[in-house]
Model the fold of this input.
Amino acid sequence: MGPDITLTRPHNLKLYQPEPFMMGQEPQQPETPNRWFALRYKEQVEVYGSPFLELEESDSSAQVLLVSINIDFFASVLGGRRDLGHHIIYFEQDMAWYYKDTDNIFKPTTADKLANQYRALLMKCASEMPANVDKLNLFHEFRSDKTARAVVNRAKSVLAASSDFFNATSPHQRIRGIELHERLARKFVDELLSADPGNILMLQDAYLAFSSLLKQRELEPLKRSDFKAMVVPYIKDEFNVALRNDLVVDGRQGVRGWKNVALNQTVPS
Done:
């Protein structure tokens, strides 16, 4: 059970309010959980408000009790601190969580790991609080599985990334995403194909060359139908030619491919 807030002695319910900072003034050590989190997550406080509703008793004991938690604030905290290079997003198209690793590539994580991260933050805060801060809710109630699940579930909307977050032209990259194939398809068209009047590039030859590139880069194989759907618009934009089904190659009729396009041998960078 949390602390009883129906107290008879004087007390005040308080939300965090930034304190004015004077030039030359030494930064104060955080004396309450609100100040502890606000010091580390200033941007999240500005957007989502005070981390906790605190009760400060105004008698000589000056006890600080945590009455309620701001779920929205802690959901945003799971997104990480951009000043430290942290970045976590929820990608609704995959219904999956991703974190940005030190190599700048987004990699999957789980809701359980995020819940553990949330609980660890509360524990660290509790361990650094002075004796006048009541730690029961901070240690027990707000670290419960129920509250942790509520924070992670709320974070799905707070940290939701747009549908084009990982598309082929996005600066964001993840492992094993279909957009990796799309990016390679763009390079394939830009760097391995060239205009060559009178030449015919057969769909099968283009597909085999692209499959070899996928293997070199340790990417999943792609079905020929998916490859065709991916490169046809790129080739159309680059060379202004459409995929044809009536080409004649070495006496064979009905060959599928592109006219006036050639396949180079140089591997794209």
Strands lie at 11-14, 52-57, 64-69, 88-91, 96-100, 105-109, 173-174, 193-202, 244-249, 252-263. Confidence is low (pLDDT under 50) at residues 1-10, 21-27. The radius of gyration is 29 Å. The chain has two domains: 11-158, 176-263.
